[in-house]
Design brief:
Layout: H1 12-39, H2 41-52, H3 59-78, H4 82-98, H5 101-105, H6 116-128
Helix pairs in contact: 1-2, 1-3, 1-6, 3-4, 4-6
Length: about 140
């Protein structure tokens, strides 16, 4: 029996639905984080100060950051410029995940922070398989 990954055939329908569901799930979470910058900019300021050591940013700054995130998320969910939009989502979520290292050290008082790891894995999977993520996208299809 040959266990080589090169001989495995994945049904296209299952693959495209799986990638779409991962993309939709990541989009929903990140959209809430982006909208939070408009609904509660003080929360965004606290996050930037506590996790990134960047303080003193005003409300307007968070509106700009939130608007940028929404534009990026629109490209991501639409499957446009996949290398850049999927890559940026992966990078931003990786920074967010790794900047929370203190919370992982006190695991049982910060259990919700661990949800960042499977989402980071989803972001990485979507990025690595971006050429096959074709369901409900406006970007190029895999050849």
């Amino acid at each position: 029996m040959n266990d080589s990954i090169d001989t495995i055939s994945v049904p296209k329908d299952r693959l495209t639905w799986s990638l779409f569901l991962l993309r939709a799930g990541v989009f929903i979470v990140m959209l809430m984080w982006a909208l939070d910058k408009f609904v509660n900019p003080a929360h965004g300021a606290a996050v930037f100060e506590n996790f990134y050591s960047i303080g003193g940013l005003g409300t307007t700054t968070f509106y700009i950051i939130g608007a940028f995130q929404i534009v990026l998320l629109a490209a991501f969910v639409a499957g446009v410029m996949k290398t850049w939009s999927y890559g940026a989502i992966l990078l931003f979520h990786a920074v967010s995940t790794f900047s929370s290292y203190n919370q992982y050290l006190d695991a049982f008082n910060n259990l919700l922070f661990f949800a960042a790891w499977p989402m980071l894995a989803a972001c990485a999977a979507i990025f690595l398989l971006r050429d096959f993520d074709t369901r409900f996208t406006l970007g190029k299809s895999a050849s």
